[in-house]
Amino acid sequence: MKSVLVTGCSSGIGLCIALGLQKKGYRVFPTARTNEDIKKLQDLGFEPLVLDLSSSSSIKAAVFKLYEKTSNIYALINNGAYGQAGALEDISREALEKQFQSNVFGWHELTNLVLPKMRICDQGRIIYISSVLGFVALPLRGSYVASKFAIEGLVGTLRLELSNTNIKFCVIQPGPIESKFRQNAFKAFKENVDASNSQYTKQYQSMIERLQSGKNVKFTLPPEAVLKSAIHALESKSPKNYYRVTFPTKLFAMLGNILPSKWMDFILNRS
């Protein structure tokens, strides 16, 4: 039975992946931050681990407990992240650092902690749940965009540096997916952005309505769409480097290859 560590499993994509892999016979170690979510995962039959990706000590403790339970880990699925909404002019250094602590530095540290055992076994899969915003930028999402661009740079480099091993690195780039992402993004926005004293007050009004509406935007897919790509990345003898999920992701990837950058800016500024 192959063991898989999946981060960010309290809900949404992470929980869906954990449940889907559990059904396929994998030994899944899902992570969450709160005791409430850990209890929920235990009730679902998992062996969950407490993990806060913004804390180095939490990451090290989780990996230590993981290797108390299993001598080897076949795959790591880096999923746990959040989106800091707001115009970059309104994002403080502290808020940006917090975004990178969870979305980039935590993933990097966790990856480096599982790689040594994968090297010993000369096999493994490390899968990164990125985003369409890992290769295109959109207004009022700059912190999250920057974190996903950074992740994709890290993955591309790791893939080259470990090309002489049987450890494979894959990136999944979802567009809109049913999850609590917008709810969490709005929470981070309220905590870190002074919207009333911003040059973007008007733009924030429509953004807040969208984040609070609870309605799915056009082309939203269920998290099972990401699960399908994750399974292929885990089980294929020749996994893809990139898995593009949802119509917007595929459309923007295509347009980015054929349109001049100024045309792309025009389109993205109205998306």
Could you please describe the fold and organization of this structure?
This protein has 271 residues and is of the alpha/beta class. It contains ten helices and seven strands. The chain has helices spanning 12-23, 35-43, 56-69, 93-121, 142-161, 181-192, 201-212, 224-235, 247-258, 261-268, and strands spanning 3-6, 27-32, 49-50, 75-78, 124-129, 167-174, 242-245. The chain has a seven-stranded parallel beta sheet with strand order 3-2-1-4-5-6-7, sandwiched between helices. The longest helix is centred in the middle third of the chain and has 29 residues, at 93-121.
Topology (elements, then pairings):
Elements: E1 3-6, H1 12-23, E2 27-32, H2 35-43, E3 49-50, H3 56-69, E4 75-78, H4 93-121, E5 124-129, H5 142-161, E6 167-174, H6 181-192, H7 201-212, H8 224-235, E7 242-245, H9 247-258, H10 261-268
Parallel strand pairs: 1-2, 1-4, 2-3, 4-5, 5-6, 6-7
Helix pairs in contact: 1-8, 3-4, 4-5, 6-7
In brief, what are we looking at here?
With 271 residues, this protein is an alpha/beta fold. It contains ten helices and seven strands.
Q: DSSP strand (E) fraction?
A: 5-15%
CATH superfamily: NAD(P)-binding Rossmann-like Domain
**How many structural domains can be distinguished in the coordinates?**
1
Note the run of SSEs as H and E: EHEHEHEHEHEHHHEHH
Report the uncertain regions.
none
In the CATH hierarchy, what is the class? Alpha Beta
Helical stretch tally: 10
Distance between the termini: 44 Å
Report the C-alpha radius of gyration, rounded.
18 Å
Coarse morphology: globular
Characterize the largest beta sheet: strand count, sense, and whether it forms a barrel: 7 strands, parallel
Can you count the beta strands? 7
Helix percentage: 40-55%
Structural class: alpha/beta
Strand order of the largest sheet: 3-2-1-4-5-6-7
Mean pLDDT: 96
Secondary-structure arrangement, i.e. CATH architecture: 3-Layer(aba) Sandwich
